[in-house]
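Re: beginner question about structure tokens

> Can someone show what the tokenized structure looks like for a real chain? I only ever see the sequence side.

Sure, here's an example I had lying around. Input first:
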Amino acid sequence: MPLKTTSNLFTDLVIDFSSLETYHNTIQGKLFAIPVYMKVRTSYYSGTSNVVTPLKQSDYPIEFAGASRLTYYASLFSSVEINASFYKLPKMATIEKWGKSVPDNFRFTFKVSKAVTHAKDLQFSTKELELFVETVDRIGDKKACLLVQLPPK
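And the corresponding structure tokens:
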């Protein structure tokens, strides 16, 4: 089969585009056709900014009944950007809990605190940055990257 997916919907895609076949996949009862044209053998992490799921929790598949939104999300994607860390640093215990609720191959990107990125002339407190790094480091091996959003000027 030209397109292989592993445990996540959008992860570890291996697409053999050398043939003109079409790969058909069913997602939530809808049939999707993906034209196959050239060879690609790369793995990507994919996800959204914040935990966004296509279903309400009451409509999750039975195997996710009672599961957190993040746990269900991690069955669809392999990465997420934590945007909330820009506004308020999550508790270390919360970050540890997030790390335990996703598979080993899942990755988190944290948006750096605006206390750092929006300090006038980037003259931020090094203690603020150290606290941020120490806190998000609680995610362990599931770190992806740090996103720096600077102000317009």
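Each token stands for a local structural state, so reading them left to right follows the chain. The beta strands are 3-4, 14-16, 22-27, 30-35, 39-40, 47-49, 79-82, 107-111, 143-147.
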